[in-house]
Amino acid sequence: MNITGKTKILGIFGYPVNHTISPAMHNAVIKILGLDMVYLPFEVKPSNLQHAVNGIRGLGILGINITIPHKKAVVKFLDKISEEAKLIGAVNTIVNKDGCLIGHNTDGYGYIASLKQEIGFNPKGKNIIIIGAGGAARGILTTLAAKKPKAITIVNRTLSRAVSLARAFKSRFPDIQFKTIALNENILKTSLEDVNLLINITSVGMKKNEALKIQLEALPKTAIVSDIVYNPLETSLLKRAKKLGLMTHGGLGMLIHQGAKSFKLWTGIDAPIKVMRKAALKALKIGGGR
Ligand code: ATR
User: Fold this and answer.
1) Nearest CA to ligand 1 atom 25
2) Residue 136 beta carbon below 6 angstroms from any ligand 1 atom
3) Residues whose CB is less than 8 angstroms from the CB of residue 14 and which lie 6 or more positions away in sequence, other chains included
4) What is the pLDDT of residues 232-287, one digit of tens each?
5) pTM metric for this prediction
6) CATH number attached to the domain at 8-105+253-286
7) Which atom of ligand 1 is closest in space to residue 183's alpha carbon?
8) Could you say which of 3.40.47.10, 3.40.50.720, 3.90.1150.10, 3.40.190.170 is the CATH number of the domain covering 108-250?
9) Which atom belonging to ligand 1 lies closest to the Cα atom of 135?
């Protein structure tokens, strides 16, 4: 890496931030494209978030990714918010345009782009089940609903969260059929017959011996099972789906494509996806994770 007097700075704010693999992905792209830039991790305590955001302005940092736990809290410190980030209520990317800080959210885009690129899936007219009703589910739903699926069923441990999420989306997307179900072992027997895609949008599966207790047997053989968890690369949910002969889709692609979209917002350049994937896989092997 060659730091010069003109080196532009990109980076990520998180707390903790030491497990992030975003610096590996972005610096690999910077290197291969020969850009005079560097992407750095910044550990920002919640109580320092406003100072850190002012630091983007003060230091002329070109762009910043925002990760856990700051995605919602950062919104109030920015000058403008994209429509999508407004709908999601969270920001994962800040662009510094001549001192004006603009918040975007590329997570939902990243998920849909990876579905398309990796397995050629188009949500239009499809019947989709999502498990989870938290911030990540809201992000993916926002982009997913815009692609006009026929029906979305939200399954969640706490049913009331699924119901309020469905209500919010129903008023915005009246043509989509929304259903809600409480997460339990037997739900899928009756609800799964004509499902095209089932997505886990909870963090369950990140820890060893932790698995979603869901019966996949009732899914049609054409269904795809997708998991946003990427560490491990193949969760026990995906392993079970594979054993049943179902097509699977892991979470690493979402991370890569959200990163590529952030990079495009900062630089105007299409990041080479293959380079990002290779760097992400290497970083995961040597102990990264978020
Ligand atoms: P995120 O922003 O990552 O989505 P979140 O808003 O805290 O985080 O939401 C976490 C989601 O994972 C929720 O849907 C949560 O279910 P509840 O709403 O019932 O809390 C789900 N989740 C977390 N741990 C879970 C577990 N052990 N079993 C089932 N669902 C779980």
Assistant:
1) 204
2) yes
3) 20, 41, 42, 43, 44, 66, 67, 68, 69, 70, 290
4) 999 999 999 999 999 999 999 999 999 999 999 999 999 999 999 999 999 998 76
5) 0.93
6) 3.40.50.10860
7) 29
8) 3.40.50.720
9) 2
